[in-house]
Amino acid sequence: MEAKRFGVQIQRGLRHWAILQRKGNFGSIELSGIWSALPGAGDELASVYTRVVKEDGSGDIVPWRRCATDRNGEWNTAIRDIPTGGLYRIETCLRVGDRQPIELATRGDMIHHVVVGDIWVIAGQSNAAGYGRGAVNDPPEMGVHLLRHNGQWDLATHPLNESTGTVQALNGEPVNPGHSPYLAFAKEIKKETGVPIGLLQTALGGSPLSRWNPDENGDLYRNMMDVIRSAGGQVKGMLWYQGCSDCDPENAPTYLSRFSRMVERWREDMSDNDLSVLTVQLNRNASSEEGDEADCWWGEVREAQRTAAMTLSRVYVVPSLDSPLSDIIHNCPAGNLLIGGRLAKAALAADYGKTAAYRAPNIVQAAYDPESHDGTPTILLMFADVTGELFAVGNREPVFTVEDGQGKAPITRWRITDKIKVELELSRPLEGAAVVHGAYETNPSAFPVLDTGTHMPMLSFYGYKIKQEKR
């Protein structure tokens, strides 16, 4: 038979390792439960008290405060001024009569390892869920916490998407997941800002955009919203890495419009028009079974990802073409560290007011000259967001492709002519309207143009219109 518990019990509110999404520089909690005085304590109405202390022992953050109590043995309180930081401990006690020293009051429940900071939601498919295999030094860190699939907050450790004791089976992986970019992302933000970070992992390998878009299937979207509500309902931003499952003739052409609507609905349902969405442009699929048609679909999805970051407010994109793989399609742990660092720089610049070069080279102009200085037809590409200067090991890699009314116009040579310019020499003049693609294929060149200032490759582009001067 269980012995009767005296003192204060916490029945509703936080649990160990929880992270509170801050508003401004403060977090708030609501706690409630039951209390029971020791036998012989008399008929005086006891008082429940709570406080918040630093777990490093350096003192109170919020000193003892009296809670609302009643003679039915229930109590409740709201603490609304917990400053950004942690680790904190929430303590309770039961004080019988005003003369009893608070330090000698009857015991109460405690909640350990609580922090106030920012919560980021992980959504998408396998490279978001984390399928990286192999060893890498990416240890856990206090102040970076994870809401696990069992519904409990914990210290964040890989794999983030494991499903032991899950209460959200819908996004449980069919195989054991591995390493992902997001622990590195969270640790970098905490290092640069001092703000603790919480992660909500809702991604699922192989999931198409339709399962995240409430205007379509939307089942993973609804699961994501349930997880967000379980963590308090407010988050700092979204970490989105998805697209492989939409590289087909039905879904690739509409990816941009469907993604745009999905972001709109996310913001509506979270009542946050400024919700930050950090995305990753697709890496490569090294399968030898894909053909030319698949190249076009992958190009369309990558172009949609590039365009979304240019046209949608507070949507950002980082490249991944230089990330090494664990298999034909999944980033390895070393690549995940690279991507996580890039996403952190984007967040630091966009959401934390830090100076960080996070943008990759991005095409902004393609101009055709039918008779360049030596009579060879050329196309001059111009890029923005170049921190240092454009660089390539050589010009024999097939990084760029030109198409016009007659089909592909072969490129005989290409070269970097300026810090932000690339010149393409063609084997024949263009005929009619023409477009240029860059590193768009399913498995594009291993050596795309990069920026010496950030060592990031250019963003892939597809179907970029070439401007032709009338003569």
TrEMBL record:
Q: Which residues form the Sialate O-acetylesterase domain?
A: 117-348
Which InterPro entries does the record cross-reference, listed alphabetically? Carb_Esterase_6 (IPR052940), SASA (IPR005181), SGNH_hydro_sf (IPR036514)
Annotated membrane-spanning segments are none
Q: Which SUPFAM superfamilies match?
A: SGNH hydrolase
Decide whether keyword Signal is in the record.
no
Record key words, sorted: Hydrolase
Protein name per Swiss-Prot or TrEMBL? Sialate O-acetylesterase
